[in-house]
Write a structure and sequence with these properties.
The longest helix has 30 residues. It contains 9 helices and 16 strands. About 30% of the residues lie in helices and about 20% in strands. By secondary structure, the protein is of the alpha+beta class. The strands form 5 sheets. Strands 5-8-9-10-11-12 form a 6-stranded mixed β-sheet, with helices on both faces. A 3-stranded mixed β-sheet has the order 1-13-14. A 3-stranded antiparallel β-sheet has the order 2-4-3, with no helix packed on it. The chain has a domain of about 210 residues: tt1808, chain A (Alpha-Beta Complex). It comes from Fusarium phyllophilum.
Length: about 400
């Protein structure tokens, strides 16, 4: 069941929202044996592949969703379907070829397709750029942390894989934006954006990122756009608590920034004297932060407002904007034209393959002296075990080995 618990907003908002916490003595948490993070699930064993159906067709509900999206039908930004772990493992290549972004929860055997709006995507991209630019500026102005900031990269919507206990099937998440430090196994900062109809999922996603990565994700920035109470920013971070009688801290999470609005429901700026203050150490595991000061990075609420306003302006221009008035003719592209291009490419591939074969044959024609000084026999090309046969595409669209 989804967690619908809402934390109350701060009674007296501060002019600067800091994500910093009092530094506690570092206590190492030793999780149980963990599988290698960040990697997709392994393909099924050969005997399992033999038992799989010859034709792996996607479930009809998923096919219908894709068709509805392609014809411009109304589709929820988050749409989920039940899908067993066996089917997910078998169908994963086809799912990745059909859908740009999706999450999978093996524990609940559920797949969630992400089909965000254009405003959603543009806003997430601009937020990622704003944070990255602030990091770059910090490194430019502070030589001491420059080696650290230059290793923080934007990982965009790359999939994040985590494993739950002994489940061999990985949980998959496709965030709206993320930052990873070179040398880290997981991203340390994640950005999630939600429209009004799916904003309730933000807290659940944030907790999941922190929990599933054992706190490797150190900050989750959640943006809820155009809610009834306006557009807001909230931030979640790991929290470590030590129970009485135990020396080992327990990982939990907390909302360090409550839902703070930066734009009103009628699209006016609000809290424009506020700043979102980030910690430099949020962007890498603790080991990679050693020797670098934990300097603050601030993003003013005015910037958040401008980004959302700009994203909506771009969306509007794509509908009402101008197009080139150049008067030109164009021919209909026939299927035969496309086939001729394909045939031309095939010829190029064959010519290139022929040159390679001739070169190998010439090399095989050389004579090399034997141990007794007499020339040895010509080596047959077929005996060259170190050269794999080339694969070319024939005119009948079948593959043949050279």
């Amino acid at each position: 069941m989804e967690d619908t618990h809402q934390l109350s907003p701060e009674s007296s908002p501060k002019a600067s929202i800091s994500l910093s916490h009092p530094v506690k003595p570092h206590r190492k948490i030793t999780p149980p044996e963990r599988k290698l993070q960040g990697l997709p699930p392994s393909p099924p064993a050969s005997d399992e592949r033999k038992r799989a159906p010859i034709v792996d067709e996607l479930p009809q509900d998923i096919v219908d969703l894709k068709r509805k999206y392609e014809i411009g039908g109304e589709v929820s930004p988050l749409t989920s379907f039940p899908l067993s772990k066996e089917d997910y493992t078998r169908l994963r290549p086809k799912l990745e070829a059909t859908f740009r972004r999706f999450d999978y929860e093996p524990r609940h055997e559920r797949i969630i397709f992400r089909m965000p709006s254009r405003i959603h995507d543009i806003f997430a991209q601009f937020i990622q750029d704003a944070i990255f630019n602030a990091l770059s500026e910090l490194g430019h102005n502070n030589e001491d942390v420059r080696p650290f900031t230059t290793k923080i990269v934007k990982a965009a919507t790359s999939d994040i894989f985590t494993f739950d206990n002994d489940d061999p099937v990985a949980k998959q998440r496709s965030p709206d934006a993320q930052f990873i430090h070179i040398g880290a196994q997981q991203p340390s900062v994640v950005v999630e954006v939600a429209a009004s109809q799916d904003a309730k999922q933000l807290s659940k996603l944030a907790k999941g990122y922190i929990h599933d990565t054992w706190g490797d994700i150190k900050a989750v920035f959640c943006f809820a756009l155009n809610k009834p109470d306006g557009s807001t920013i909230s931030v979640w971070k790991p929290k470590y608590e030590t129970e009485q009688g135990s020396d080992e801290p327990e990982l939990t999470y907390e909302q360090v920034v409550q839902s703070q609005p930066f734009r009103t429901p009628d699209k006016n700026p609000i809290n424009q004297d506020h700043k979102l203050v980030l910690d430099l150490h949020d962007f890498a595991p603790c080991q990679l932060c050693e020797g670098y000061s934990n300097l603050p990075i601030s993003i003013p609420f005015t910037k958040l407002y401008d980004i959302l306003d700009y994203a909506e302006e771009i969306e509007h221009s794509l509908v009402t904007g101008v197009r080139s008035n150049r008067q030109v003719k164009r021919r209909r592209v026939s299927s035969s034209s496309l086939e001729s291009i394909t045939e031309e490419d095939k010829k190029k591939w064959k010519d290139k393959d022929r040159v390679v074969k001739q070169k190998l044959a010439a090399e095989d024609g050389e004579y090399k002296g034997g141990h007794d000084g007499e020339p040895s026999a010509k080596r047959a090309q077929e005996a060259r075990s170190c050269i794999q046969p080339s694969i070319v595409e024939s005119d009948s669209d079948e593959t043949v080995s050279g």
